[in-house]
Amino acid sequence: MRLRLLRVAACVLIGGLSGTAATAETNESLIERGEYIARATDCLACHVGPDGTPYAGGNANITPLGSIVAPNISSSKEYGIGDYSLEDLKRVLRDGKAPGGKYLYPAMPYPTYRGMTDEDIEALYAYLQSIPAVDYAPEASTDLGFPFNIRFSMIVWNAMNLGEYEAPEGLDDQEARGQYIVDHMAHCSTCHTPRDDMMASEFDQHLGGAQLGSWFAPNITSDEKAGIGAWSNQELADYFRQGQVSYLAQATGPMGEAVHYGLQYLTEEDRLAMAAYLKTVPAIADDSQQHAVFDPELSKPILDLEPVVIKATDYAPDELAQHGLKPGDIENPDSPEGLYAQHCAACHRDDGMGQPFSQYASLQGNTSVRSANPRNLVAVVLKGVAFSGSTPRPLMPGFEGKLEDQQIADIANYVRTEFGGHSASNINADDVAYIASGQQPVSGLIRYAPTLAWIGILILVVLIAGGIWLWLRRRNRRASAVHHQNVHSDQ
């Protein structure tokens, strides 16, 4: 009898341990899937700390409304989202509403995240709750002026704009998977779709390109000339992984961040699915684009180049007499050609062909150079290239504060006409200063919102005061009438 009981107890113990192990394995699998979802949704690009601490928050998103700072989303219960329930996270991602009733701004792309499945949100929740707690708040905080600092007003914005997106029909399985990633998890439209007067996405221009601070998120519709219609699916998938393709296109600015923190970690299957979907997005033409932004034929002569040492390479002072090009050797160092020779040719060659052997980009055929919109070229010269994808390559320094605005304009004009196929380029110092500022056009409604809000408040105050005055006047009249009636009754 005792032996039988021991056997039963052993079976129960083994069964319990097996169940615990299975549960742990299930949780581990869910967390691993959640980490993949976090990469696909590009959480780190915004929520990384200024010192690089994952999910610590503090990264400022500069918007036309002001600076919006991403919060701590680590598992810290005091400073992060450690106290969130799964339903709390769902409301954040789908409705833009945090626990306690705090409304979020759509810099947090909940208008696109709202299309995520319950299963993916559950996995993301498991992962975010598993990461180490960052037990401090970001030093910076969201700073918007009146009336944009009234978060309650987002109720009206949400009512007007959430649910406006309509998913395309007729997609095959691969394209549908790509659509889910592009339009929801990766929230590509947040950057690449123009905004209307209320800062909501203009879905009739879906993925047609939009200004983003100093940068321009390009047209990624299927248009052959202005968009990505000339790219092959494999070239697009390679771009998402490497941050470059054919030495003609490099991911810079916010796109560089997206590749660095997110897209390079996706599976090849998912990257190809994204490419397949993007090739189905209705083409949006740009009449100002006279030649194709991306021409794969232009990469062929670049691939045959032998590695070279450019005479303008920045040698040490004691080596200049024996090697390289001294500024005094340039016939006109202040000319656009001279500025290019001093600051650009060491990496990109005198002929602009770059050095594929060393991963230096070609300017001949480069998408930023060939684009009719010069913003990204100027922004790269100003800000440099700070991120690379899965293929490490030399990062480019920025020249903001090192060269004058007119010098940067001269270099950009020279590069566009010499290597970009433009017959003329008229960028000036004011254009460079404007791009460096990160300012962008906003509607009159946004520009004059503070004035309109105060006028509205004044009108409301007047109406309330008028209403109170009328009410008091009527009450006094009724009281007077009752008094007269009582007097007559007494008589």
From TrEMBL:
The keyword Transport applies. Binds 3 heme c groups covalently per subunit. Its cofactor is heme c. Heme c 1 binds at C43, C46, H47. Gene3D superfamilies: Cytochrome c-like domain. Residues 29-132, 173-282, 331-419 form the Cytochrome c domain. Residues 1-23 form the signal peptide. Keywords: Electron transport, Heme, Iron, Membrane, Metal-binding, Signal, Transmembrane, Transmembrane helix, Transport. It holds the Pfam family Cytochrom_C. This is Cytochrome c. It comes from Marinobacter adhaerens. The lineage of its organism: Bacteria, Pseudomonadati, Pseudomonadota, Gammaproteobacteria, Pseudomonadales.
